[in-house]
């Protein structure tokens, strides 16, 4: 257990250092066992860290958050969606009345016509598009914004994994006032 905690602390500190945040990592405790250095040890520690990060919110929170959503969103992982949305949060807010950032606020986006959120200057491609946002439309958009609607200004390459897109969309649905129909 101490080895697992030490590995998590090292990975967390390395992550903070990589993005320029946080303080200098603390030296490992003298009583901590030495860290193994084989390929198997690295693989096991990365798997362990990933497993713990995925289950940080607990299974009860998932069921409550996505209850009543259509599949695949009802069975999506809340913690994964929340974690992956962090990439989006530098450009989009989710709260009602929240700010417009580099991208529009996403609160109430579902069943809203594309390109019509007040206070945001949409590209010509989005202004001319003729559809309403649905979870399915957002899924296609997130797979590859450039391919889904050529000419839009979103500089995001997309999310290739279907399960990750479902988790992001379910998280956005749960945070933006989506009501299942």
UniProtKB/TrEMBL annotation:
Molecular-function annotations in GO: electron transfer activity; heme binding; metal ion binding
Keyword terms, alphabetized: Electron transport, Heme, Iron, Metal-binding, Signal, Transport
Record Pfam families: Cytochrom_C
Composition skew (Low complexity), residue ranges: 24-36
Keyword Acyltransferase among record annotations: no
Name of this protein: Cytochrome c family protein
Occurrences of domain Cytochrome c (ranges): 76-176
Signal sequence, start to end: 1-20
Region spans: Disordered: 22-64
PANTHER family: CYTOCHROME C
Classification via InterPro entries: Cyt_c-like_dom, Cyt_c-like_dom_sf, Cyt_c_1A/1B
Composition bias, Acidic residues: 43-54
């Amino acid at each position: 257990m101490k080895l697992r905690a030490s590995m998590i602390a090292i990975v967390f500190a390395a992550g903070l250092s990589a993005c320029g945040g946080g303080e200098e990592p603390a030296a490992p405790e003298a009583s901590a066992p030495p860290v193994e250095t084989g390929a198997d040890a690295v693989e096991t520690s990365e798997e362990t860290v990933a497993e713990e990060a995925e289950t940080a919110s607990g299974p009860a929170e998932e069921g409550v958050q996505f209850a009543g959503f259509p599949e695949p969103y009802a069975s999506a992982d809340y913690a994964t969606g929340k974690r992956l949305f962090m990439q989006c949060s530098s450009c989009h807010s989710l709260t009602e009345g929240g700010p417009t950032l580099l991208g529009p606020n996403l609160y109430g986006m579902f069943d809203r016509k594309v390109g019509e959120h007040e206070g945001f200057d949409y590209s010509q491609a989005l202004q001319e598009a003729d559809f309403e946002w649905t979870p399915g439309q957002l899924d296609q958009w997130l797979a590859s914004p450039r391919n889904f609607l050529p000419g839009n200004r979103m500089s995001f390459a997309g999310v290739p994994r279907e399960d990750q897109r479902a988790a992001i969309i379910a998280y956005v649905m749960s945070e933006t006032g989506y009501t299942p129909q």
